[in-house]
Specification:
about 350 residues, alpha/beta, Udp-n-acetylmuramoylalanyl-d-glutamate--2,6- Diaminopimelate Ligase, Chain: A, domain 1, UDP N-Acetylglucosamine Acyltransferase, domain 1, 3 domains, 5 helices, about 25% strand
């Protein structure tokens, strides 16, 4: 439980109400109860502010008149950011592992920092280096020569291949595979010849990798993920991809090999990005888009087609099939108009 007076101090918030009130959990405005704290970040949910049963709310100053009677308020600049900070303070997620489980397999050459925890049946291979406070969940495997920075946590059944480097304070969710081979093959007379992937993966500090996401090792040079990059579930990053600091990638997106994504980019869910292209800093790509060329200017890009009724989709598809015919007709009309402009006479209608 956190007392509101202390919370206000930590958030640099203006407190209205009972400073001695304590909160122990976060909740939505609609379903909050006694002892919980909620927030209002979008004015369209303001109607719930006057009805909420929360003990406290995080709001902007202009929402203060709408707070329900008896509900304490913390006035902040950005309620959603404040909510994230409070949620971290009240986080009840259990530790991924505690101590070294008897069934864990740790190679004698591995170096473990202080307060490391290794769960049941986890495997730490030769020459691995784990920083202070690293937690490895049950069944997680860390390959030869891998390095994992202090405070990084790997949930159950994560696979880290050989020589992968992960920075400090990262979180990797279950089923993620980091450092598997990139899709490198040469074709000789119809037969595929595998190209050994001799690079590795380097991940910066304070990154989060979602469940069942895969990040391939580099073919020759490394695949590189910057600092504070967040990658959702079921994403695929191919060999030699580079992701700039503070970029966010939503679920089921795939980035093909040797593509460079800048800093502070936002890539929506289900986006496909072609290989060997570059995306500038600050680019935003909406969900289900297909990026086939470099995007070198900051801005928002889209290509996905929103769902519509089947009847409208059929009509639009039929018209799309006629686009070449329509193009040729427009081109012909332009030529006729140009001829009319040049000689002042009506264009000929003869074949």
């Amino acid at each position: 439980m956190i007392i509101l007076a202390k919370l206000a101090e930590q958030l640099n918030a203006q407190l209205t109400g009972d400073a001695a009130c304590g909160v122990s959990a976060v909740a939505t405005l609609e379903h909050a109860g006694e002892g919980t704290i909620s927030f209002l970040a979008n004015s369209k949910y303001r109607k719930y502010l006057s009805q909420t049963q929360a003990s406290a709310v995080l709001i902007r100053a202009d929402d203060l008149p709408f707070v329900a009677p008896g509900v304490n308020a913390l006035v902040v600049t950005d309620p959603y950011v404040a909510f994230a900070q409070v949620a971290q303070m009240l986080d009840s997620t259990p530790d991924i592992a505690s101590g070294i489980h008897p069934s864990a397999i740790i190679d004698p050459t591995a170096v473990l920092g202080t307060n490391c925890a290794v769960g049941p049946h986890a495997v730490v291979n030769a020459n691995v280096v784990l920083g202070d406070g690293v937690q490895l969940g049950a069944g997680t495997l860390v390959g030869q020569g891998a390095q994992i920075g202090a405070g990084t946590r790997l949930w159950a059944n994560v696979t880290i291949y050989h020589n992968v480097v992960i920075g400090k304070g990262c979180l990797v969710h279950s089923g993620a595979v980091i450092g598997s081979d990139g899709f490198g093959f040469a074709n000789k007379a119809g037969n595929w010849l595998k190209i050994p992937q001799t690079g590795t993966v380097r991940i910066g500090d304070k990154c989060e990798i979602g469940a069942n996401t895969t990040i391939d090792r580099g073919a020759i040079e490394d695949t590189v993920i910057g600092n504070n990059v967040i990658i959702d579930n079921l994403c695929q990053l191919a060999h030699n991809v580079q992701i700039g600091d503070h970029t966010a990638i939503a679920g089921s997106s795939s980035i093909a090999g040797s593509t460079k994504v800048g800093r502070y980019c936002i890539i929506g869910g289900g986006v496909g990005v072609n290989g060997h292209i570059e995306i500038a800093d600050g680019v935003q790509i909406t969900g289900m888009s297909m990026v086939t060329r470099s995007l070198m200017e900051k801005g928002v890009y889209s290509s996905g087609i929103p769902a519509t009724t089947n009847a409208e989709w059929r009509r639009n598809t039929a018209r799309l099939r006629q686009i070449e015919q329509l193009f040729q007709r427009v081109k012909q009309l332009e030529q006729q108009l140009q001829q009319l402009s040049n000689d002042g006479q009506p264009p000929s209608t003869e074949d």
